[in-house]
């Protein structure tokens, strides 16, 4: 399909409006009010270093398609990736994917996200030992993306996710879709993207009669690479479907001063604080084709997880990408709390690079 001589920016805005309309039925949830929350976990090491939800960087990294299927492109043909993201309390989290380009159809990928919660002791009300049980979550994703028109500056993509969750003998199933569009300027310095993630339904609940909503989220991102400096700066806006992301602890509401008896009202969250909670700002230092440095600041993570007396580096993440021979390696560290952070590792390669030279 070709859209004649319409301005690319105008087309991007039109596609944005279409995507927003397609999910106007979704009563999106945050916090603990939705099922399958593991879908919100950052799947790739590079994404972890960039703050968690970058959707607008368009290059040859297959991991980016996890957050925005429209990022898939022919440069990812026959690329495979493995990500290992050990989480808190012994939880294991990972993601693996493979992409293939089909001429005239588009670029497709298949990916698997998994979370293992380990083994738990089973006891009864008297604390008698009844053995052990385990739990885990899985999402199998099929994605496809292709250009919109012949100018190769607008791209659309979609992902379908089959979701399975198991805790002891309780199981749940669901289906979800991600819809994404991406715009890239002719000089490839500017990219913009819009994504609607996890729009779907829980087909089977953990127990009968209590189906829950999925964690639908709308995201908008812009990336700008400087023409004469090795920097790519990205601004990502999350949870556009909900304005107020702040949380007020009920235990702190209307405290009474033990000396004066005066009732203290909880401090109100300002407009500026509510606005900033939607944003992640990140930067990649593109030292060479084979070596990148990455860093980011996640406003919401810092506001929710910091200790007021010692905020430290909460909300900051950083990492690096390195190519060694045929392998692309990445490392990241994300600071979630004063008590610690997480480390992630990934390895990617093109299967075609391993063919023997004839």
Please describe what this structure looks like:
The chain is mainly beta and 358 residues long. The protein has one domain (8-120, 131-246, 277-354): Beta Barrel (Porin), CATH 2.40.160.40. It is built from four helices and 16 strands. The chain has helices spanning 8-22, 45-49, 271-276, 299-305; strands at 79-84, 92-102, 106-123, 129-147, 154-167, 170-184, 190-204, 217-225, 231-237, 255-256, 263-264, 279-288, 291-298, 316-324, 327-337, 340-350. A 14-stranded antiparallel barrel has the order 1-2-3-4-5-6-7-8-9-12-13-14-15-16. The longest helix has 15 residues, at 8-22.
Shape descriptor reads: globular
Q: In terms of structural class, how would the helical and strand content be classed?
A: mainly beta
Rg from alpha-carbon coordinates? 22 Å
State the distance separating the first and last CA atoms: 40 Å
The percentage of residues in β strands lies in over 45%
Order of helices and strands: HHEEEEEEEEEEEHEEHEEE
Number of strands: 16
CATH fold field value:
Porin
CATH class: Mainly Beta
Mean pLDDT: 87
The CATH architecture term is Beta Barrel
Low-confidence stretches: 1-6, 20-29
Q: CATH homologous superfamily?
A: monomeric porin ompg
| Number of DSSP helical runs | 4
